[in-house]
Amino acid sequence: MSQTSSISAPRALSARTPAIARRKSNRVRGTWPVLVLFLPPALLLFTVFVILPMGEAAWYSFYNWNGYGLPTQWIGTKNYELIFNNGAFRQALINNGLIILVSIVIQIPLALWIATMVTHRIKGAVMFRLLFFLPYVLADVAAGMIWRFVYDGQFGLVAGIFNAMGMSAPFWLADRQVAFYAVLGVIVWKYFGFHMMLFVAGLQSIDKSVLEAADIDGATGWQKFYRVTLPMLGSTVRLSVFFAVIGSLQLFDMIMPLTGGGPSNATQTLVTFLYSFGVMRMQVGFGSAVGVVLFVICVVLAFSYKRIFMKND
Amino acid sequence: MNVSFGRLARHRLAIALSAAALMAGVSSASAQSVIKWLHLETNAERLGTWQEIAAAYEAEHPDVKIEFQFLENEAFKAKLPTLLQSNEAPSMFYTWAGGVLKAQMQTGAIRDITAAMDADGGAWRNSINPAAVAAMTFEDKVWAAPIQSGVVSFFYNKELFEQAGVDGTAIATWDDFLGAVQKLKDAGITPIAGGGGDKWPLHFYWSYLAMRELGHDGFEAAKNGEGFTGEGFVAASQKLIDLGAMQPFQEGYLGATWPDAMATFADGRAAIVLGFENTATPTIQRGAATDGEGLVQDNIGRFPFPVVEGAPGLITDDFGGINGWVVTTNAPPETEDFLKFFTNAENSAKIAERNAILPTTIGAEVGVKDPSMAEAAAQKAQATWHQNYLDQDLGPNVGRVVNDMSAELAAGQISPEDALQQIQDAFSLEM
């Protein structure tokens, strides 16, 4: 649109200018009512519920404030210093990194593998899809509570299995070396179904004739997957990784009933850290500072990921 | 279940009442005051008693309606600051006194009940144990109506002690206690049930040890500005590390919640628990045990937290909670009157008898029928010092750090110096 008009405009400038102006004013007249009608509600909601709280959090983060009344005790960047000197925060950061790593190295390949199996027209494929997707449907809190019970060394399923084999049961969630791996296991179990569904949708959109052509060319199963399916699934994989990253940064409601961030902060994530050290201790100023740090991490990750990996999607 | 049924029943009653009022052509329903009672009680029996008292009050005061609102313990603590500053603030809510109550006072969100306490020549004030009123008093004003106070002590399984050849009544010093733990271990019995996942059950150990090491004067000096890095605190922290190193707790205790720990004790899977005054009562045992029965009271012994030899702390220095109800700024004026009714000797005795608590209302002790509770009451009566839970007394921030550090120390994950420095860091921010 703009290109053609800019090229053609100089050629018959005098004759066409009024026409363009009229058309432009028509367009503006056409958009104004829409703008006036539709923008304020969204803008207002967005400002009140997103922009303002973010600004407020940034403001609170410079105060030592317990949430009552108005913040008065200005402490500069002390909250930020406290965050970066806090061992539990570093642990939370490492844990979030681990979740992303496990998502990419174990969860997504697993999801892709299972997705390729359940898209084939095998008997009960729909059944299996449903089965693998079920954990994702379950509420995070419920999943956390269920797995707390499963891992229980006294009455849990794990205890039952170990006892049946004549061994004494481990208490994984109480062992700071092991607890986070146990949590990672639950995360993979809970979310691989979601990624699988993404891949199932991606696989179904691949043109069958391309795969048939590869068949005719004598490609092996692995070659077909590696050379045809995977490249054509590229955008789905990138999207899947994106969700895994964002999901890791948001992870909270499953951790709380499962371990509450313990033992010794071994299973804290950034959000559970914010909750236990900001909200529960009524250190709203400190918590806000954690929120700001989390926000910056999210924005940087999301934008750079979109810029670098998803620019063509 | 009971709660929702009660609510439904009350709704029906309210509907019936307002219908009756309409028919009579009287609009008294619109002039009704509503007392919104925010509580965190999950025990249906206790709630039942409260509802009964509330109903009795409503019957006497037809223009007052009492509405129960529930929040789970942790959710309550997290939500309260926001709730108090909103239009949805409850009329009265639960408190553990201490630093949290003080912080609430400073915001103006709660109302001091001094005037109501002192009305009629101080009738209400004089009906309640002075120490309990003092615990709710800041700047010479009373900020909550006390209802109960407790004392934490050791409870033990007599049968298991016998098996290990330990005499529970002979434990007077910390060394005696460690000796008993060792004997139990040698007999193949898990000595102590601990709730390391919730952390605060372990802060009982650190608090008591610090109280015993420092004594009243030393401890007060620390709270009043001297701080928590002194010798006595190092010694107390080291003792907790040493105890943890003996591995006296049940397996997986670092992930265990308080109910888990109580179940461990009530099932007879561990011999000792450092618990609340009502640990040995049948109600609590039934609620805690996996079989719904628990230990019979005759099988449960009790001894106060032992002293540290050569340290100034006395065996009669008690540690335990104090609770009350806080009135919010915009609560209807009838709230104080209801609380006065709720804490009168008759009602307090009723609650004490049915719900295993130690009332703070004078004359309500007659309701303490359970022998183990009576024993705790007797200990409390001769207390030389009563220290509130540190995670309440020191305020929410320092308190949580104390809890965290107690768990870390018991797990042997931190040196006394580092743990105390963290407590001190949090403490210095509050000063």
Automatic annotation (TrEMBL), chain A:
Domain of life: Bacteria
CC terms in the record's Gene Ontology section: plasma membrane
This protein's record includes keyword Transport: yes
UniProt xrefs under CDD domains: TM_PBP2
Transmembrane segments: 32-52, 98-118, 130-149, 155-173, 180-205, 284-305
InterPro entries for this protein: MetI-like, MetI-like_sf, UgpAE/MalFG_permease
Membrane topology type: Multi-pass membrane protein
Places the protein is found: Cell membrane
ABC transmembrane type-1 domain location: 93-305
Keywords of this entry: Cell membrane, Membrane, Transmembrane, Transmembrane helix, Transport
PROSITE patterns: ABC_TM1 (PS50928)
Gene3D superfamilies linked: MetI-like
GO biological process, one term: transmembrane transport
Full protein name: Sugar ABC transporter permease
Organism the protein comes from: Devosia elaeis
Automatic annotation (TrEMBL), chain B:
A GO term from the CC aspect: periplasmic space
SUPFAM superfamilies in the record: Periplasmic binding protein-like II (SSF53850)
Domain of life: Bacteria
Alphabetized UniProt keyword annotations: Periplasm, Signal
Signal sequence bounds: 1-31
Keyword Protein biosynthesis applies: no
Subcellular location: Periplasm
Record PANTHER family: ARABINOSE-BINDING PROTEIN-RELATED, BLR3389 PROTEIN
Record family assignment: Belongs to the bacterial solute-binding protein 1 family.
Protein name: ABC transporter substrate-binding protein
